[in-house]
Automatic annotation (TrEMBL):
Organism lineage: Bacteria, Pseudomonadati, Pseudomonadota, Betaproteobacteria, Burkholderiales
Stated name of the protein: FIMBRIAL TYPE-4 ASSEMBLY TRANSMEMBRANE PROTEIN
Family annotation (Pfam families): PilO
Native source species: Cupriavidus taiwanensis
Keywords noted in UniProt: Coiled coil, Membrane, Transmembrane, Transmembrane helix
Coiled coil (residue ranges): 56-110
Transmembrane residue ranges: 33-52
Length: 223
């Protein structure tokens, strides 16, 4: 048995000796079979290189596109999830704006508001040496009415007057306060009581027109 195997191996080896590379058709069976196997392997390798590698590249591009779409989807989902929170914030802002607007008197109510400021000082025993409303300053959403005033009294009376003005149902802010001692031991206070009122329809229309003109000028400006 061993002798037969050695003879077969010797015969197989002898088939690979003296091969003419230019005439493969004259080769014995064993070299031709091995050559065919190697040729098939080369064909498969080249096929993978030129076909399957392109397919893998396309698959990778599709995977990246899928990942990009996934991220875009997650972003949209996050926006939708935040939509309710944004709506609630918008609602709260609108409620605060409505509350502030209710605290703004209209033109016809301004005299009553200024009278309330004056009454708050008189009720605390202060002497008004100056109480002079100035012209309204129109802002985009409201108007400011500065009132120059000067009062004299005792320290705690002046402090209580400022607290009373701050507690009014309408918005009034004390600005540019200047305090000085008087000759009789009292206190003098000069300030600007800034009152605010809502715009009337004509003023609102004028503000919208001015805002539109400003936006148009900005849009048509140098690029």
């Amino acid at each position: 048995m061993a002798l037969n195997t050695e003879i077969n191996l010797a015969d197989l080896t002898s088939q690979f000796r003296g091969l003419n590379l230019n005439e493969p058709e004259t080769w014995p069976a064993a070299p031709r079979v091995l050559f065919a196997i190697l040729a098939a392997a080369v064909v498969l390798l080249l096929g993978w290189q030129f076909y399957w590698s392109g397919k893998f590249d396309e698959l990778e591009r599709q995977r990246q596109e899928q990942e990009s779409l996934k991220q875009a989807y997650q972003s949209k989902v996050a926006q939708v999830a935040n939509l309710d929170a944004l709506r609630e914030q918008k609602k709260q802002v609108e409620q605060r704006v409505a509350l502030l607007e209710r605290q703004l008197p209209n033109k016809t109510e301004m005299d009553a508001l200024l009278a309330d400021v004056n009454h708050a000082g008189v009720a605390r025993g202060l002497q008004f040496e100056l109480f002079k409303p100035q012209a309204a300053v129109i802002k985009p959403y409201f108007a400011e009415i500065p009132v120059n005033l000067r009062v004299t009294g005792r320290y705690h009376e002046v402090a209580q007057f400022n607290a009373d003005v701050a507690a009014l149902s309408r918005i009034v802010s004390m600005q540019n306060l200047q305090l000085a001692n008087t000759k009789d031991g009292g206190l003098s206070m000069e300030a600007v009581a800034m009152a605010y009122r809502a715009l009337d329809p004509e003023e609102q229309a004028a503000q919208r027109k001015a805002a539109a003109a400003a936006a148009a000028a900005k849009a048509g400006g140098p690029k």
